[in-house]
Amino acid sequence: MNTIQKKSLKVGKQVGTDHVNTVIKNYKKERWVHNSNRLGKEDSLSVWYSIEELEEFIAMSKEHGADGIKLYFGVYDKDYEEQPLYAGRQTIALVATKHKITEAGGSNKDIYIQTEKGSTILSWNAGGMCPPYCGGRDKDFGEIGITILDKGDEGMAIA
Hints:
Blueprint: H1 17-39, E1 46-48, H2 51-63, E2 68-75, E3 90-102, E4 105-110, E5 112-115, E6 118-121, E7 123-124, E8 128-130, H3 137-141, E9 148-150, E10 156-158
Antiparallel strand pairs: 1-8, 2-3, 3-4, 3-7, 5-6, 9-10
């Protein structure tokens, strides 16, 4: 009897507080402050989803043959009427994917499903964004990623 061994598609790893603090501080310094200045308001720093809705999306993705999920960086339209406080801010869209082997190597292809309205990408978005909805910053962020930004003539900002 021959046994077929499935190759793992894992690419990430668990990281610690120092790593998370470093990448968040780097992001704030290298991207966020410039995005916020250009936008004229603080850009989002995080997007939150409940475990329940992530499990729902993962289950739906598996039902349609997905073996992975891409996290796309995106930006809401400047006149986003569904949630005006999200307008112009960055977001994360989750998209179900299937790993495919091609002549060029491995590729993670977005999954499309059929709905009443036709073919559409299998995706999830519109999580809880901070800003604008951060609650008490101390409660939401703790010590992770706290940064004091020198905005030149515009003063300082804590992010």
